[in-house]
Specification:
The chain is α+β, with helices and mostly antiparallel strands. Helices cover 34% and strands 18% of the residues. It is built from eleven helices and twelve strands. The chain has a seven-stranded antiparallel beta sheet with strand order 1-3-2-12-11-10-9, sandwiched between helices. A three-stranded antiparallel beta sheet has the order 4-6-5. The longest helix is centred in the middle third of the chain and has 15 residues. It is globular. The two termini are 17 Å apart. The model has no long low-confidence stretch (mean pLDDT 94).
């Protein structure tokens, strides 16, 4: 077992936590806890380790949003921009006038106006982005939150059109190289627009630390504080989305926590929770 626990951390509390996971049939693979930038717990459960690269599912969305943030900091993208600025032909082809009111922020907050996630029609389409725009809108943009992997995929394509670099390239060249994050694997559709990420608990914890430190990394600003505040604030309501943590609201591809703070969240127990008031980051990889 890969394990390091700060002497100030209660091992009894960790044992209770592990037992609660077992009771809930959740298998812990790796966990890291940081407070004020210092590692308190680094815990890999055999055969897993904190450095293992793995599919993080929808936690990838927070990385994609960070690529949008990098473009925002360079003056290339703004949440208030209309999508027609980046996808003029796609928007022009739509008869529904509501498409002309869809903004970047609606992609970021999953409030595009769709009745359901359009990903089913995008996944096997020759042109996934076109398929996104050809999925009918059901309400005014900004009116209702509908969880949308399709919107996240279009964000990745928007980054490419705005910067001339894919989201993966932009992150690698402007962020990861300064944070000692490497061997990140991206998978996507044939046209490169839909991207999923394989990363380690170490990698994800670093993203959480970057946001917890308001965009600073080892004395160097990598992301603007303005973007961090926008991305992690409650930008959309999610009142009918299930349990308290799913109903607490949504930022720019970050979920709000009912008890405070925010998180990047994957489908099968991939989690990075940031508690700014406590200057604490908790990263979990589980199954």
């Amino acid at each position: 077992m890969e394990q390091w626990i700060d002497p100030g951390v209660s091992t009894a509390a960790l044992a209770r936590f592990a037992n609660r996971l077992k009771e809930g049939r959740t298998q812990l693979h790796a966990m890291e806890i940081f407070e004020r930038g210092n590692c308190l717990v680094r815990w890999g459960v055999e055969p897993y380790r904190c450095g293992d690269k793995r599919e993080v599912y929808s936690l990838s969305k927070s990385f994609t949003a960070t690529a949008v943030g990098l473009a925002y900091d360079r003056g290339l993208v703004d949440p208030e921009d209309l999508l027609s600025r980046y996808f003029p032909q796609h928007v022009a082809c739509q008869y529904d006038e509501r498409w002309r009111r869809v903004r970047v922020r609606h992609l970021l907050t999953m409030t595009t106006g769709h009745a359901a996630c359009p990903m089913a029609g995008m996944a096997h389409a020759q042109d996934p982005v076109r398929a996104f725009f050809e999925t009918d809108l059901a309400c005014e943009p900004g009116e209702r939150f509908v969880y949308s992997t399709g919107a996240s995929c279009v964000l990745a394509e928007l980054v490419r059109r705005a910067t001339g670099r894919t989201a993966a390239e932009l992150l690698a060249q402007e962020l990861f190289c300064h944070m000692e994050i490497d061997n990140i694997w991206w998978e996507g559709c044939a046209d490169g627009s839909c991207q999923g990420l394989k990363a380690s608990c170490d990698d994800v914890a670093k993203l959480g630390l970057l946001y917890c430190q308001k965009g600073m990394w080892q004395g160097r600003r990598l992301l603007s504080e303005e973007w961090v505040e926008m991305a992690t604030a409650r930008q959309a309501g999610t009142p009918d989305n299930g349990t308290p943590d799913w109903c607490a609201g949504y930022g720019f591809q970050f979920w709000q926590n009912s008890a405070g703070g925010y998180r990047a969240d994957g489908a099968f127990g991939q989690l990075c929770a940031v508690l700014p008031e406590r200057e604490t980051v908790v990263c979990l990889m589980a199954g």
